[in-house]
Structures are given as structure tokens and as C-alpha cells.
Amino acid sequence: MLIIFEPDTIGNDSDYTNSEKYGPANGRFNYYLSRDDNSKIRTSYFDTKIFQNDTYKKTLSTGETYISDVYKSPVNDKDLFYTWAVPIKTSNRVIGVICLEVNVNSINDSLSQINPFEGSTITLFDNVGTIAYDSDKAIYISKTLDEIYPYYKEHDVFNKIIRGENLLFENFSGTLQKFYTYSFTPVEISKGKYWGLKITAPNDVILKDSDIIRNIMFIISALIVVISAIIVPLIIKRKVTKLIGYTARDITRISNGDISFHISNDFLKLNDEWGDIARGLENTLKNLGNVVSTVKNSAEQVSTAANEVLVGNNDLSQRTETQASNLEETAASMNEMASAIKESAEGVSQSTSMVMDVKECVNKAGLIIEDSVNKMDAVYESSSKIMDITKLIEGIAFQTNILALNASVEAARAGDQGRGFAVVASEVRNLAQNTQESVKNITSLITDSNNKIKLAANSVQESQTIFNEILEKMDNVSSIMDKINTASQEQERGIDQVNTAIDNMDSSVQKNAALVSEATSASESLLSEAKDLIKAIEYFKLKS
Fold it and tell me: Which residue spans traverse the membrane (predicted)?
């Protein structure tokens, strides 16, 4: 089985262009299932030549189920196969194809069980006339009808079959020197597409039973006429009376179905007409015994053949049921896969929503950090201005201290008159020194504060850079999650189409099962008729 999707149906072919499985197809999805010699399932990718195959291209172009012509296996150039292709659709658009390769031998095993008449043959050919099965001559397989049976053109066999018409005709075989009946039946394998099934049987076999019954009636009628013609002229004779008794007794036994006895030796030894009658009756008994024995053997062979056909049909029915069961299991697995993909899609959708929420929070945090940076820059600027003011105050205090010192010197020169002024100058000097010392402390604190603010601002700027990187990565994650979400939805739709294709295949298997059931009923009917014929033949008592 092969599943192929059109390019970029799932949406991420480019991610698999270098993969081992999908690389040869440029990342295009294709999946191939097959059975090895041990009937184990193996998977692989398929040769890209399939993309140019008529089966794939016609299914894509028509959007309908397509069954290919019969073709030889590319592996051993011996086995015959045909491909059953079903389109995968979404919104009335074909997005891929699922193909099933069927070995014609799987049909041949069933056809070989069919043998409605002794010496009958069966031939199966496809819609272009290629022979897929021939029970008489296997060398005809893979050749065409026109090549092997050119005289079929006289009856327009092929054209009638592809039109879905039945055909029946009689033809004389120069090789076997007997007449054969040819029956052709169309088998519809897809809408408007027919294969042909041919059954041939010799006319003498088909008409054997009716010929036997007719000959028996002729023999009995002839006996009655002969006996009547001979015994009437001799009725007056005593000897004739005795011979008539013998004859009546023997004919009565024959009419009762008893052909197991012999004519009396006394009767057979006669050298006159009566002896001829006796010997004629003896030969009649012998021939009738041979005929009845042959009919009985033929009926038993028909019964055996019908039973074999019935067994074959029952086996085919079981295999059809097994195939239907396998399809149901496949459908169940696909449903489980679809459910898992749906859950994954829902999880991806929730993850996408959560990523968007986180992205929004990161955006808000980035704005807060940016605002903090701006405010810290403002604080740093204000601190710088305060430092300028404190330096100005420090300068004023220094100048005041100089002025107080000068005042003290002048007061000392003034003597007692400047003593009070000296005290004031001393206090002003002390105050100026204290102010200058305090300003130095304030300047030191502001300088330390500015350094710390600068470090904090650098840290906040680094945090802002990190948040910007996180935001960029969140954008990438969000984009990837969107792609995964889209791919999951496409996968879900693709699985739905595969399920639809499997349902169509299951419907076809069910139809095949119905046909097998009809064939089984026909086999049972044939078996019943054969048993009735055997029962009728058992009316005659044969020589042991």
C-alpha cells in the first residue's frame, strides 16, 4: 500500500529535503507498506518515478477511483499485478492518492477452483485485452486476446465485454474435433470499467446427461418394438409362451431398474430369432450398465467438483472476511491516529495561546524596565546637579572661612575694640569649617550614590537587552507553534481523507463478499443437483 501527498500539502516539505526517507522526493510526504517473504509488514519511501505513473496522474486529474491495467512485477518480471488507486480529498480538492497493489495470483487461486464441467477452461482478461489467467495454458498469461484468439473478432468479443454485455456462441475445434460452447461475462471492477471472464466447455459434456436419458428411452422403445414384432406371430406356440415369459420377466426387471442380472443361458443358446433377442437383451443390459455406471461416475465427479468449488468459495469467503477485518483494524488504527493528532493539535493551539500570553507579559516587563532605566537616568542627572550645588556651597564655605580668618586678624589689630568682632569672626569661621566638612560628606555620599545608580542602570540596561532577546525568541517560538498548528490541522484533514478511502475499500470488500456468497449459493445448488442425479442413478442396480 502506498500513500502520497501533493507537494507542500502538509506545509513543511522544506524541513525534510535532506531526510533519509523524504529527501529523494524533495521533502514530499510518501509512505509505502509491503510484506516481505515472511509476510511481515515493512515500511519505506517509494521511488519518485511513481509521481509520473499513469495510475497516480489519472487519479489526480479525475478525482475518482482508478484501477490500472495488468502489468508485470518490476522485481521478477513474472508475477502480474494491478493497482487500485483512491484519491484523498479535502474541500473537493485532491491532495494525494492511496494506492493498493494486488497480485493477480490472489484471484487465480480462486479461479482455479472453478470447474463447472469436465474439460472446461476459464480465462480472465483485463479491459485492454491482456490475459491475467488461463486455466488451460499458462503461457498465454500476459498476452492479448487478439494475439491468441484472432477469430474472437468475428464475434466482437472484446468490444461487447468493455460495453458490459454478455456473449455466448458455439465454435468447432479443429484440434479436438468437437464443438465447444464459449461463454463471456463482463466483470465491473470500477465504474464503467469491465474485465472479461471466459468459460469454455465441450458440448458433448454439457449435453451428456440429456443424451444418456434419450438413449435409454430409445433402447427401451426399440426393445418393445422388436419384441412385439417377433412374439406376435409366434404367440400360439408353447415355446413362444415360455420365451415371452423370459422376456417379460427380464423387461420387468429392467423397468424396475435392475440391470445387474444376466439373460438365461437357455435363452442365449437359441440359434433362432429368439436367441438374437436374448443376445440383444444381454448386450442392452451390458451397454445400459456401462451408460448408467458412466453417468453415476460423472455425477459423482460433478458432485466432487461442486464440493471442491464450495470449499474454495468458503475459503475465499473466509479470506474476504479476514480482509474486511484487517480493513476494520486499519480503520480503527487510523481513527486512533486521527484522535491523537487532534489532541496534539489542541495542545499546540493551547501552547500557542500560552506563548502569546507570555509574550505579552514580556512586553510589559520590557516597558517597565525601560521606564526604570529612564527614571534612574533622571535620578543620576539630579544627583549630578546636587553635586554641583554642594561644590558651590563648599566654595562659599571656603571663602567664608577665609573672610572669617581675615576678620579675626583685623580684630586682633584693633585690640580691645575688636575683641567682640573677633568672637563673631571665630564663630563664623567655625560654622564655615563645619559647613565645608558637611558638604564634603554630602559630596562623598552623592558620589557613592551616583556610582551605585550607574551600576544599577547598567544592570537594568543588561536586563532590558536580555528581555529584548527573550522577546525575539518568543516571536520565533510563536511562529514555529503556528506552523506546527497548521501542519497538525492538515494532518488531521489528511487522516480524514485516508479514513474515507478505507471506507470505500471496505465497501468494495463487502461487495466482493456478497459475490462470493452468491457463488457459494450457486455451488451449493450445483452440489444439490449432482446429489439428486446420483440419487436418481442409484435407482438402477448394477452388477457387482
Answer: 216-236
